[in-house]
Design brief:
heterodimer; A: 336 residues; mainly alpha; ABC transporter involved in vitamin B12 uptake, BtuC; two-stranded antiparallel sheet; 2 strands; globular; disordered N terminus; disordered C terminus; B: 361 residues; two-stranded antiparallel ribbon
Chain lengths: 336, 361
């Protein structure tokens, strides 16, 4: 038992450490490239750009990590983000007094969508990919039917959240990191948190160990939709209005999954960490900002992103597979 | 049990349900618009569905092997743009460009397959990266606005057909291509290759112990999916023209169609004909929604509800039948296949085939 926990801990530390080594590598390459065009990578403005770039994807990816840890997926996030921005902007109607109401209503609706996602996955036994794709399409249909364009407006006080910062660190990024700390504590210190890993590692073993396997999955889906709701609120605060296309334009569904996997979480579930995900998001942000400074063609950016995602994951999976192999062979010998 | 009963049971089973759904949809469309049943109209409908059906057919092979191919849509876009830019008005270039497109498709499939199998990167990530890289590359090459109008001879592949056929008036080439590919796919599935593919999708470890070259089997599945995406691209040039949005979202539509056809995500279970029927069911649904005047914006919502219901139906029915559970890697799930394989020569009808897969998977 002890040996098992230590291997697990060492593995988890390892993968997260690699993410940050990769991040440092990307920062060094970025800094060299940026200075080659006569700009300073570590200037306040650039750091603020990178951190701002991290915040929205960070929110989504933190939630996505939970869902992926349980072995599911959430493809409905872009539409949840748009819906959240619209509900917030419509409820606030530009009055500061409505801010709390708007935020709570938006998050409650998101939580409800997450609950539906979770129930469809656990009770109807629909694969997470299809369940969240379907629920996402339903929300998209609602958005397209109900809204023709940007609606509502957000009061100046609320816009403040997306626009200001402490030194070079934007408030939105601080909130995102605070949320990441909460989710980290949730995973490490609570029963449901441990069950999320257990269910993702092996649903059958978790059930045979006496876990109620649906509860962690439902909770993960709810939390994922809520964090996507936060991302929507942040986008509403930045745009000043709610927009029905803001989520799908960002491609947050696939990008967040890519960031999570880039952060060392195994797509099949059961292994991974929040800090790895944050590292993955940071790699994306540094990459994007460097390419912007270098004035890389926006289409080429996608090519680079695609290659980096595959290359980075290829580096890890080699390691992860070996770790897993070692554990299996030990088990087999015991069985004999 | 007589044949009629057997057929009825197959129809309500998850594997057969898609055919029932398709029949209901087609009848409803015909009731609303009697012209639809006219052979010449119907063949037009088949022509319109052909690219989606072909993409679904390719996606089937990848999904049944336990992988995903998210790059199909981007590959279609890339092929459409390549055709638009390279063929131009010069008809003599048609054949060389076609060869180039097939080679390009094969390279994409090979890269997807080899990275997935040899570097052990999840196919979801590999093909996601490929999707971004292909689309970005194509848009970069064309500067964001793809232009080019391939020669008529090239466009005839997707647009034209054999004229003056009795009953149908015209048989579009795309319908013939779909029929040929479907026949080839059924043949493939019956051969050792198809069986191995399903075995690999069901349990990689068991397949490896049985001596399967897993990397090659999975890579072949990706080669097939890229090949079908290339063909769909060639057909789409004919009647959708050259535009960077042609093919967008096809990967998700194809996955939806395949899943609607009762193929299980995660691999190991499914029938290629049902996957193609899934594509037809999906397109019939859209056609029906058009006729009934449902706002086009609700199309997505209805599509979403239908796929969830279809998969939930198949998942819960399996659960009830097995009294156990519907884990993708159920250790007992493979057992009945041994028996069905032995009796297989006795049944040759496609319905009997479904029955086996239903039980065996």
């Amino acid at each position: 038992m002890t040996s098992l926990t230590t291997t697990k801990r060492r593995f988890r530390l390892d993968s997260t450490v690699i993410v940050y080594i990769a991040l440092i590598g990307v920062i060094i390459v970025g800094a060299v490239l940026v200075s080659s065009v006569g700009r300073n990578f570590f200037s306040d403005g650039n750091i603020r750009d990178i951190l701002t770039g991290m915040s929205v994807l960070g929110f989504v990816a933190v939630g996505q990590t939970l869902v992926i840890l349980t072995g599911s997926l959430d493809l409905s996030v872009p539409y949840v983000i748009s819906l959240s921005s619209l509900i917030a902007a419509e409820t606030m109607k530009g009055y500061a007094g409505n801010v709390i109401q708007g935020v709570l209503l938006a998050l409650a609706v998101c939580a409800a969508i997450g609950l539906v996602n979770g129930l469809v996955v656990t009770k109807l036994k629909v694969n997470g990919f299809i369940a969240t794709l379907g629920i996402g399409l339903i929300v998209k249909g609602y958005l397209d039917t109900r809204y023709k364009g940007s609606t509502g407006s957000v009061p100046a006080e609320f816009q403040y959240i997306g626009a200001t910062g402490v030194g070079p660190v934007p408030i939105s990024t601080i909130i995102m990191l605070a949320l990441a700390v909460l989710v980290y504590l949730f995973l490490r210190k609570t029963r449901t948190g441990h069950h999320i890993y257990a269910v993702g590692g092996s649903l059958d073993v978790a059930r045979l160990s006496g876990l109620r396997t649906s509860q962690p999955i439902v909770v993960a889906h709810i939390l994922c939709s809520v964090t996507a709701g936060f991302a929507g609120l942040l986008l509403a605060s930045r745009l000043g209005v709610g927009s029905p296309t803001v989520g799908s334009q960002g491609g947050y569904d696939l990008l967040s999954i890519a960031a999570v996997v880039l952060g060392g979480t195994v797509l099949a579930g059961g292994r991974g960490s929040i800090w790895g995900t944050i590292g993955g998001v940071a790699i994306f942000a540094v990459l994007d900002s460097t390419m912007s400074v270098m004035q890389v063609n926006p289409f080429l950016k996608d090519v680079v992103r695609g290659i980096v995602i595959v290359a980075a994951v290829a580096v890890y999976t080699g390691r992860a597979i070996e770790q897993r192999r070692a554990r299996f062979s030990v088990k087999k010998e015991v069985a004999r | 049990m007589n044949k009629v009963q057997k057929a009825a049971i197959t129809l309500v089973s998850p594997r057969g349900a898609v055919f029932l759904l398709l029949a209901v949809l087609l009848v409803s469309i015909t009731v609303l618009n009697p012209n639809f049943a006219d052979p010449s109209q119907f063949i037009r409908f088949v022509q319109r569905v052909a690219p989606i059906a072909i993409v679904a057919l390719g996606q089937y092979f990848v999904i049944v092997a336990g992988e995903f191919d998210l790059s199909m849509g981007s590959l279609i876009t890339a092929q459409v743009v390549i055709a638009g830019n390279l063929v131009g008005q010069d008809e003599s270039k048609t054949i060389p460009v076609l060869i180039f497109m097939f080679v390009f498709g094969a390279i994409v499939g090979l890269v997807n397959g080899l990275i997935t199998t040899l570097l052990k990167v999840p196919s979801f990530i590999v093909t996601l990266g490929m999707m971004l890289a292909l689309l970005g590359g194509v848009l970069f090459w064309t500067g964001g606005a793809a232009t080019g109008n391939p020669a008529d001879g090239f466009r005839q592949i997707g647009r034209g057909g054999i004229q003056d056929v009795p009953v149908f008036e015209v048989i579009p080439y795309s319908v013939i291509i779909l029929a040929v590919l479907l026949a080839a796919a059924i043949w493939f599935s019956k051969r050792p290759f198809g069986r191995t593919l399903i075995a690999v999708g069901d349990n990689v470890t068991a397949a490896r112990f049985a001596g399967v070259r897993v990397w090659w089997v999975k890579t072949s599945a990706f080669l097939i999916s890229s090949f079908t995406a290339t063909i769909a691209g060639i057909l789409l040039v004919g009647y959708a023209g050259v535009h960077p949005s042609v093919g967008r979202g096809y990967e998700f539509i194809a996955i939806t169609a395949v899943v609607l056809g009762g193929v299980v995500l995660g691999g190991g279970r499914g029938w290629v004909v049902a996957a193609v029927a899934g594509a037809f069911a999906l397109e019939s649904l859209f056609t029906l929604l058009n006729f009934t005047g449902v706002p086009s914006t609700l199309r997505d919502a209805i599509q979403g509800a239908i796929i969830i219901l279809a998969v939930a139906y198949s998942a819960t029915t399996f659960r009830a039948r097995r009294k156990g559970r519907t884990t993708l890697t159920s250790p007992t799930g493979k057992e009945p296949d041994l028996h069905t394989d032995q009796v297989r020569p006795a049944h040759t009808s496609p319905t009997a085939g479904t029955e086996h897969i239903t039980k065996g998977g």
